[in-house]
């Protein structure tokens, strides 16, 4: 366990011993709907900045931030800590670690992870471009553009293709996040 990270075992102990500890899932509503830790509140990372003052002023207990792998949760923790909320930790390894440890999950409609969708689309475009290039040589440039986009995404830690794919109907949850309810649960510490 690092200074700002907490492993699955320690989170389970924390939830059993601290009634004000709360899991805050910063994944998209669609990811949350697919599976989440029982009792977790969904506050998508893209909503944190818009409600930062209310989160910091109202946090009623220790927040355990979680995403798929821990990266988005780490960004959220940095944002919250920068605004003065220090009592936050990140679940090391995120939902991947939680599930690997056999910890309880609430499951809903399963979807492919956004990262997997990006790999499928980018790989399909590159493969199609390479296969089309003997007939239409400029198709090679399409593969190059996708490759450059992937390099840019890695360097800047952003993903335009992922953002575009997240807007598809398949990736939308059946309902939207009730931000007011999420903020109220954060303030109540459960």
Automatic annotation (TrEMBL):
Keyword Membrane: yes
GO molecular function annotations of the record: thiosulfate-cyanide sulfurtransferase activity
Gene3D superfamilies named in the record: 6.10.140.1340, Rhodanese-like domain
Domain (Rhodanese) ranges: 17-107
PROSITE patterns: RHODANESE_1, RHODANESE_3
Alphabetic keyword roster: Membrane, Transmembrane, Transmembrane helix
Ranges annotated as spanning the membrane: 118-137, 143-165
InterPro entries in alphabetical order: Rhodanese-like_dom, Rhodanese-like_dom_sf, Thiosulphate_STrfase_CS, YgaP-like_TM
SMART domains in the record: RHOD
Protein name: Rhodanese domain protein
Originating species: Nocardiopsis dassonvillei (strain ATCC 23218 / DSM 43111 / CIP 107115 / JCM 7437 / KCTC 9190 / NBRC 14626 / NCTC 10488 / NRRL B-5397 / IMRU 509)
């Amino acid at each position: 366990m690092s200074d700002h990270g907490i492993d699955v075992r320690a989170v389970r102990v924390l939830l059993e011993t601290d009634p004000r500890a709360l899991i805050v899932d910063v994944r998209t509503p669609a990811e949350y709907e697919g599976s989440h830790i029982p009792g977790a509140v969904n506050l998508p990372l893209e909503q944190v900045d818009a409600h930062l003052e209310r989160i910091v002023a109202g946090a009623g207990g220790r927040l355990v931030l979680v995403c798929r792998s821990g990266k988005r949760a780490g960004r959220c923790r940095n944002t919250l800590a920068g605004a003065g909320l220090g009592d936050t930790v990140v679940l090391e390894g995120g939902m991947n670690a939680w599930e690997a440890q056999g910890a309880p999950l609430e499951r809903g409609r399963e979807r492919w992870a956004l990262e997997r969708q990006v790999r499928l689309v980018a790989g399909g475009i590159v493969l199609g471009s390479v296969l089309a290039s003997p007939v239409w040589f400029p198709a090679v440039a399409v593969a190059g553009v996708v490759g450059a986009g992937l390099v840019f995404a890695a360097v800047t830690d952003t993903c335009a293709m992922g953002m575009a794919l997240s807007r598809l109907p398949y990736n939308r949850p059946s309902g939207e996040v009730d931000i007011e309810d999420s903020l109220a649960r954060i303030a109540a510490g459960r």
